[in-house]
Amino acid sequence: MSYGTDELRAEIDYHERARSHMAEMHRSTADTYGRHEAEFKEGSRGRGGGDVGPDKELAFLMAKSTTERMADLTDHDLALFFGRIWFDGDSTGEDYHIGRRHIRDERSTPLVLDWRAPVAEHFYRAGAHDRRGVAKRRRFGFQGARLTGFEDEDLRLGEEVASDILTAEIERPRTGPMRDIVATIQPEQDELIRRAAATTMCVQGAPGTGKTAVGLHRAAWLLYNYAEHLHKAGVLVVGPNEGFLAYIANVLPTLGESSVWQVTVQQLTKADAAAGTDAHEAAMVKHDARMALVCERAVWGHVGRARDGGVTADEGLLITDGGWRWRLGANYLDGAIATAREHTRTYDAGRKAVEDAIVQGVRRQAEIRAGHSPDNRWATGLKRTDAVKDFLEAVWPKLNGKAVLRKLYFDAAFRADATRGILTEDEAALLAPKGRALKTTAADILIADEIESHLRLPKPSDSYGHIVIDEAQDLSPMQCRAIARRSGQGSLTVLGDLAQGTTPWAAADWKDQMAHLGKSDVEHTELTTGFRVPGVIIELANRVLPHLGVDVAPARSIRSDGSLDYIEAADLAAAVAEGVAKALAEPGLVGVIAADHRIGELREALPEDGRVELVAASLSKGLEFDHVVVAEPAEITESPGDAAGVGLRHLYVALTRAVSRLTVVHARPLPPQMGE
What is the pLDDT of residue 61? Predict the structure, then answer.
């Protein structure tokens, strides 16, 4: 690092000044919170349970707002700024410190600019050949909250200079859950992060390209720049499993955002509460896109015609209204049913449209015969007559989602009608439960959700302004549709890697997957440059890639460090323990990845050390470790009960979880796909 002692001391002093002002901002916000909390309590005294005055409501909202602001100003024991830029100009040229959040002094002069502010874009995007008005860029080295040095880059020289600080930060050992990459965002990542809120993006990213970090930082950037809309509409992050969510949980809070809901797709749809499990063949059918057509037919197939309500060309629908008798013909009623079916989005709305059409038809007759238009009270009474209720129940009966699902599963004739021409007879038979009781599975809950979407519109509170979906290649078509229903008119950031698809229904094409997610206007991007995984490990993974049956470009790494070792031994558990012992001699976290059935045996052989984590291959996606020990690759490729090739993809994932060193331990011959 090139710096003078006095200049470093000045930057350290500036950092301490910024920290003291942030603490003062926190104290001021805490005082505001205390005042509004007191007003809220005062407004609550002497009121009834439903007596909420505007002063009390305002106090509550202000207290809530200041609580979020205090969380934003919490000191996370991190450096408050990581960069500085000077713009062109003489001695009066502007300069800014760039950090994780905005900090101002007592005169409201900015001491640190939030990395999401428009000016900060120049810190990430400026280069020697496109300076964007930046004369000099400074990167700071830090340990925790302490500045340790800095490194300057004079962009006016027109030469690209490698940054030792940037390299060291990218390669810094893992010491816990995922952390933000705000100090190391690359220009191509920054461009994706700062796309407009209305943009739906699909990012295909090879291992180590930072696609997860891009998605999380994009969520934080959107909330900062579109706060008024998105804080109300909400931002959602959907991950593959709870282990992954725990791994990324701290990223957004350190970026100043604590309002983002992070869930798995199972939690989002409440499928995590399922009591039953499906056999592989049944699950494949239930997750298939064709089930959406089955659900649509199962709901709308209940709609009949006028004759189903006893109405014929000769005998219309007779409605008695006090001393009046009204009659509606079959053509009119069939037309009302057809119009409702064509122009309403949901079954319940269609039923109401037919009901309204009946009232309107009678109203016209009443206007002609009585000379005046009946009021709404009359209309309500007409809807309650037995003739109208019975007719509606015959041609457009009331439905609820659970009843439709049970009918689809238990009524063979109804199931045959709903699935005819969509599923084969054998596939349709897989929907029928074994036994009389329905032990609801995760796939059943998705089907119930699909059925419910045809019955009525979702509540506004169930949809989000923006959804970030990670590992999206593993979603089934039915899971995609469930997420799409919760995105409403909002946009998506979809992240994944087709090569890492490890579910039986994993996507093979992003265009089809985005269609299942309800989006056609999509910006597709492919990230192939790896920043986290060393080249020697990427090279091994690239040998496996051509055997995975997907059309994605091989990754390349900017890192020439790292190591790859093999241990061949008859006693697998002992050899894994040996590999872990060697790994613990170096700093960072150690991950041991093995076939799911091997986990219990290996746990007994491993030391009790907080730096060591044993992970089943099926759950390793999205995780990172400094050193990874992959146990018996041949076993990982043999994932029983899944679609062909899924086990090999589990191996591809396992081999790419290391950000520094990889040890492959085996007693059996290595899979041929790992060869040269």
Answer: 45
Instruction: Please give the Cα distance from 178 to 182 (Å, whole number).
Output: 12
Give 583-633 pLDDT, tens digit per residue.
999 999 999 999 999 999 999 999 999 999 999 999 998 889 999 999 999
Query: What is the value of pTM for the model shown?
Result: 0.86
DSSP state of 122: H
Predicted confidence at residue 62, as pLDDT, reads: 45
Closest CA to 650 of 667, 631, 663: 631
Tell me the two tokens of residue 65.
């707002």
DSSP secondary structure string, 520-577? Answer: -S-EEEEE-EESSS-HHHHHHHHHHGGGS----PPPEES----EEEEEE-S-HHHHHH
Within 10 Å of residue 384's Cβ, how many Cβ atoms? Answer: 8
Residue 220's SS3 state is: helix
Enter the tokens of residue 211.
């696609």
Beta strands 523-527 and 201-205 are parallel
Length of the chain (residues): 676
d(CA 169, CA 175): 13
CA pair distance 649, 621, nearest whole angstrom: 10
pLDDT tens column, 37-64: 555 556 555 554 454 444 544 444 444 5
Question: What is the C-alpha radius of gyration for the chain, rounded to an integer number of angstroms?
Answer: 31
Q: Which residues pair with 327 in a beta bridge?
A: 318
Q: Say how far apart CA 131 and CA 442 lie, in whole Å.
A: 53
Give the separation between CA 441 and CA 214, rounded to whole angstroms.
33
Q: 413 in helix, strand or coil? A: helix
Residue 219 in contact with residue 495, Cβ under 8 Å?
Answer: no
Mean pLDDT of the chain: 89
Using the predicted structure, report yes or no on whether residue 172 has a pLDDT greater than 80.
no
Query: Which one, of 375, 392, 376, 398, lies nearest residue 328 by Cα?
Result: 392
Question: What does DSSP say about strands 658-666 and 625-631: parallel, antiparallel, or unpaired?
Answer: parallel
CB 266, CB 240: distance < 8 Å: no
CA atoms of 321 and 298, how far apart (whole Å): 35
Q: For the segment 107-141, what is each residue's pLDDT rounded down to a tens digit? A: 989 999 999 999 999 999 999 889 999 999 999 99
